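Q: What does the assembled structure look like for these inputs?
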Amino acid sequence: MRVIEPWVAAPLQGFLDESGARLTLLMTSAGQVIAQDGFTRSVDVMAAAALGAAIVASTDAIADVMHTAAFGVVLHQGPKQSLVLRAFWTPRGRWIGLVVFGSETSVGLVQLFFQELELALAKAAPAELPTRAVLAENFEHELNASLRSLFGR
Amino acid sequence: MRNLGEALERVTRVAGIRGAMLVAEADGLVVAEALAEGLDGAAVAALAASLTLRLRRTATSAGLAVPHVVQLRAERGTVLSVPVGDDLLLVAVAERDANLGLARLELRQAAVQLGS
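A:
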């Protein structure tokens, strides 16, 4: 498991221990990675985060078109692996969880323990940190620092 | 759907039964439910399905074939689970003083009713 923000580690470890997930990715609704487990290549994490955030944004747009509340969960069920995408609110804004799992667990268990993760994150979140503007000239440096945190390189 | 409601009602009519659910075994998701207020059906369904699946594998590995009933007795009550066909489970949550013999009988008969 790799995390950008240390307070996320304990709640996420609890989820990983219980859920039987193969891959887990926590990101902001803009696709910025907060934590990951199971990915071995940074390029996969960045692609999954971007695509996951795009899917959630698309379902939000569909909900708007249908004049209904946002969809809570997106489930892609496959023959060997399935994927749950879930947007949720934290004290640090709206985040998205992407979880890939196989037949050793179930969508019911993954959702159950993800709800517990949401509560644990809400409890563990530190008081609001001072916001820091990310300047364009610092963007690459910030991105590389995040990738080092996530992959230890 | 009427058949589903009748089958669940058959189980919940037993004194001391707090709720009954039809659950997709592989997914751990609720298909239909009749639950008392305050009972977290989604959590019970997910955990009961996982437990039943593992117990089925255990029993099969031990050469005991498929369990007809799974009964989990806790300090304050009991969870009962019976298979419905190949993919579903009928799960009931009973209070500590419920008539478990009658509850098991009604669960089995409701499962037959649903499976037919």
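The CA atoms of residues 37 and 91 of chain B lie 16 Å apart.
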